[in-house]
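Example record

One chain of 771 residues, shown exactly as stored in the release files.
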Amino acid sequence: MEVKGELIMAAMDRQVLEYVEGLPHGRASWKQLVRELGSRGFSKEELERAIERLAERGELVELRSGHYVSTRASRQYATGRLNMHRDGYGFVVADQPIEGIRGDIFLPPDEAQKAMHGDRVLARIGRIERDGRADGEILRVLRRAHPHVVGEFRLKRMGSFVIPHDDRIRQWIEIPAGLEVPEAGAEHDRVGVKAIEIHGPADLDGMIVNCEILEFPEDDDNAVGRVIEVLGHPDDFGVDVEVVIRKHHIPHRFPAEVIAQAQAIAAEIPVEEIARRTDFRAFDIVTIDGETARDFDDAVWVERLDNGNYALQVHIADVSHYVRPGSAIDDEARLRGTSVYFPDRAVPMLPLELSTEICSLKPGVDRLVLSVLLEIDHAGEVVGQKCVRGVIRSAERMTYTNVHLLLEGDAALRERYGRLVERFDLMRELALVLNRRRVKRGSIDFDMPEPLIEFDEFGEMTGVIRAPRNIAHRVIEEFMLAANEAVAAHIEGLGVPMMFRIHEKPDPRRVMEFEQIAATFGYSLGVGPIPARKFANTQRRRDGTKVRREIELPEEVAITSRHYQKLVARIEGKPEERILSYLMLRSLKQARYSSENRGHFALAAESYTHFTSPIRRYPDLIVHRILSAWLDGTTARELTEAEVTRIAEESSQSERRAADAERELVEWKKAKFMEDRVGEEFDALIISTAKFGFFVELETLFIEGLVPVDTLPGDRYVYSENTRKIVGERTRREYAIGQRVKVTLDRVDAMQRQLQFSVVEPVRERRKKKH
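Predicted structure tokens for this chain:
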């Protein structure tokens, strides 16, 4: 009944909004709404509630009493996320592109202080410059991003405060007397760490705490909160992980009900359940994962058929059999959206009873799976496919390293896995066939180095290396891609609500910016000149007068993945490969989840989804439910189009949150690792330039830092916007993207994850100065 009520309200809201948007300038009066929508069956009370809901979400704005405007139809308003800069100003990242506006909406410091970083806000757009850049003001905070804030507790003369760890949250949190120490029974100690005894505010001074915000800042007042957790001193082992988890609001403790539910699930599979499934237990199916993996959700098998084609079996853990819609486990999994992987631990989406035990495809035990069975010809085309429920018994838990060595001819491993050697050779053969097919259709394959943090036996970081990537990784990657595409195409053909993984075409402005940089290296995507459209924009000044401006913005450009693919091939092995690959990636949009299929640009796939990792990704679990319902001859009734859309948006946000947290912790650990290396020299590559200096990446450590422009020796240097170079006014010496330099580490701020370097002058230059 509750779901039905929500659907009715959503339909009402949609009708009201569509009516307003259909009017001139997207505006309507209360009388108009009552007259028109009343004739469609709306009562005044229902209309009032619908308008109230739309206003709370920022979709309608009341201009004056009884007059409303749709923010989506108007170019004067925008809803979006506040992105603060550590210097005090901010930007509103609009939910929808606004015609005639380029980029995000700038907020000066006094406006940005009306909300907190990450809040969803409603903004009024003020001035629009000739280049399409706009500024504005915050009208209302629609949704707060930070119910809790992690930071350092400070005892001051004027009281107690928590200084947020995230320097984009500018407001200190005031902690009133009596609310400094967590209540009795509160979890203020960390797993594996001796409990911290706190008797009063003085014991907390300088410690890292998590506080709940009781009152958000308004006007010039501070936010007010209470301490709910004490995490330890800033340098305590493991505090960095705890801080990042809380800073990004990652759910990390399973509720008691979820644990109880997971523990109640029987490990033994009933005989009748096995009887209704396809039995693959006689097949020598294997899992291939990293050495430290604990959850195995995919297993594979390949055979050559009598007609010369390949038979590929991809078996995925049937999590949907155990996690039912609306259960406590399901609600928690949806809240988390994804597992989060840190260098030395993971925050799983599902309780360990499921993720590493009952659902995990461990060797030698029976496990339930959803299976994709593909017949693939020698051109890599799928000529036959079938989806079934299955049961498997994995023959081996293989690692990428061992499979790679085996395929490279390691005698000991080929003898150890003698019965599987022919199978692995066939897997490599098929993977290369599938890869050639993807390349032929235009799929982009960026070979970007991924950093891998190394630890000693005590958990202390010892270094950063390039994460290995070999043919075994390629095998699993190609098989999973093939399975995901097959499932997406199959379910799309059923005409039921579906969760797609989409990657839209790049924004023309981003393409144009990349082309400008690539040209300095002598490269181009080959898309030709990018045309621009002119917009007429009228804005009201503060004195009431109006001004009309013409704005030019780049139009849609006929770019395909082949443009990127060809450039990737051209720069392979070249000194500038690392830089241009990175910049190409930045020019592309982020992949996301959607109920609407818009294709996958980077993969050059017409239809794509995520099906192969239901233990660690909630969208995969949703796709399993849709497929399972079809196998039962029904549909997943709870997964309406509107519900799938909501889950897609939530999952995209959870994915970005996890990626940000994972990236931040890696950067923090890198900075802490470098603290003892101040004064050392390193070979580095300039990866970006700006007015204030240039950023370098150390060639052997995958660690980045800034060389401030005012530290450059021997001259006064200025930044050239046109060439993106930093040039000496007298010597004309240049520092440009892609240039190799030798630098010295001058300073490390581990908490802010900032490293500062200076350029080491060549010996001959130093000698000239002496003489």
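Notes: The radius of gyration is 29 Å.
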